[in-house]
Automatic annotation (TrEMBL):
The lineage of its organism: Eukaryota, Fungi, Dikarya, Ascomycota, Pezizomycotina. InterPro entries: GP_PDE_dom, PLC-like_Pdiesterase_TIM-brl. This is Glycerophosphoryl diester phosphodiesterase. It comes from Ajellomyces capsulatus (strain H88) (Darling's disease fungus). It comes from the Eukaryota. Residues 1-154 form the GP-PDE domain.
Length: 224
């Protein structure tokens, strides 16, 4: 895949969001990825301008920072509570489950992320009405299986252009969501809140220790 993306000049603007699953052994998969990127040069643009490393837990975030200091890093999550802990950590992109963002607490999370200067993506957004809603709410990107539909929606859908409002998003525009769809989003968001609370309890974050580890090596020396 790296060779395919890198080889042709017409694909130089294609970028990759790597979803690094939690069922991999952290050190093994991250070391292997580092070796792979070193051994596969990007011909038209460096990999750190084309790849975002998607991590689910602090273990992977720490390894990504240590092994790939020049690469953008994304926290992938379905839990607003878990993600909220990282709002004060610099240079983290939040890649959040769409239903969590569209449910209770999602608008406040977006506002807090904007205030912190952090980008927010949503996954997985495959229907036009949800794409339009993401645009209206000012999200920075979406993960989708329907790339052509997403491109048409961003350029202007069947009802005309669907651009970010001048007020910065969160307007009350009609995105074509039915009552049933809105109810479904609410139910899923509540379920995700419950599961996310359990996830947050299992994968506890010592934020001070995590931030300290970003700037110091294993011997306590400050990273250059």
């Amino acid at each position: 895949m790296l060779r395919y993306v890198s080889a042709a000049p017409e694909r130089k603007d294609v970028w990759i969001l790597l979803d690094i699953k939690r069922d991999n052994h952290p050190e093994t998969i991250m070391d292997t990825l580092a070796d792979l990127l070193r051994s596969t040069p990007s011909e038209h643009k460096p990999w750190n301008e084309r790849i975002i490393l998607g991590c689910w837990t602090t273990k992977y975030l720490s390894l990504a920072h240590r092994l790939f200091p020049a690469y953008p890093v994304s926290l992938i999550s379905f839990s607003l509570a878990f993600a909220r802990q990282f709002l004060k950590v610099p240079h983290i992109i939040f890649n959040m489950n769409m239903h969590a963002l569209m449910g209770p607490g999602g608008a406040q999370f977006l506002a807090d992320a904007r205030e912190a200067g952090q980008q927010v993506f949503a996954w997985t957004v495959n229907r036009e009405e949800f794409m339009r809603l993401c645009i209206r709410r000012g999200l920075d990107g979406v993960v989708t299986d329907e790339v052509e539909l997403c491109q048409r929606t961003c350029d202007g859908g069947k009802d005309g252009p669907c651009r970010l409002p001048e007020n910065g998003g969160d307007d009350d525009g009609d995105d074509g969501l039915t009552v049933l769809q809105r109810a479904s989003v609410l139910v899923r968001a509540v379920l995700l809140y419950a599961v996310g609370s359990l996830f947050t309890a299992v994968y506890r974050v010592d934020l001070d220790h995590f931030i300290y580890g970003l700037y110091h090596d294993g011997n306590g020396k400050e990273n250059k």
